[in-house]
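call fold target=3-dehydroquinate synthase
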Amino acid sequence: MSSVVIAPIAESLAAFLQKNNFSFIATIVDNHTYRHCYPAIKPLLNKHTLIRIKSGEEQKHLQTCETIWEALTKANFDRHALVLNLGGGVIGDMGGFCAATYKRGITFAQIPTTLLSQVDASVGGKLGIDFQGFKNHIGVFQLPETVLIDTAFLKTLPASELRSGFAEIIKHCLIADGAKWDEIRRKELADQDWQDLVAHSVAVKQRVVEQDPTEKGLRKILNFGHTLGHAVETYFLTRSAEAAPKRGGQTGRLLHGEAIAVGMIAEAYIAFTRQMIEERLLAQIEEYVFSVYGRVALTDADIEPILALTLQDKKNKGKQVRMALLDGYGSCAYDIAVTKTEMQQALDYYRG
């Protein structure tokens, strides 16, 4: 497993670079991390190549990868070089994918700067890009050399990004730690202890990934909420700006965690209808998740295309949609075959 260090970035990055002798270093940033995060690491780097890309999930495609590969090639990067991915999940997924495939693989390190990437995307070695509207459709498993987490970067984020990342924290509690779930659901978002929750989520994910690095079995529990959640996210990502989703009285692009919040409620409902969880747990999830994220307005016309997108889910076997479903407080089962009717009823339940 990769080492994960939760500490001020000036300390952790300096120690990492001192222990290694890289021939070249590239730092990949987006517009946000270039302004707000890059100044914190620039003094620690001597001569290095800066690769700056546009921000957003819509940049996570093959053309951006070509830009990164071209920059590495022009700088004569060899297989003893290092790529530092400074950013959220898009930078980590895509920068890691580019490093893992450049000259059949060079060393890379993740420096996650969003809550979502600190608790989820940077740990576990899943790398990839979107393709023809499908999330993470092309990718590989490759662990970074290290993950350097500094929760001070969270201060650069808008509240919407904190909410988005918090969905993965909720998920980790629901699938692996019922006591932690009881703790977080009694607090408002603003009152959460981010240092503690980041460390907790990293520990949960590491424990699972160590047992199943390439998602053949147990690791699939980390996909709770993600079958319908990813379908909802992809559906709204590929629609026009005029058709942006409405939730909580606001309109705009649906963030990853907001979509996963939809998925968690809907998939918890399926678990309840199968008598895998008690109504009390379903009610807790519904009440708390709605209090944090509001309700995404899904119309009748949205449901069929969302259900169609579940057929492209990577957990499926043949044409059979498979889910990770809760089977108790802090417990989750995986590889559960579900029907289109069950998913439609779950989305109808979510809509209220």
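return ok
Residues 229 and 263 are 4 Å apart (CA to CA). Residues 3-156 form a domain with the Rossmann fold fold (CATH 3.40.50.1970).
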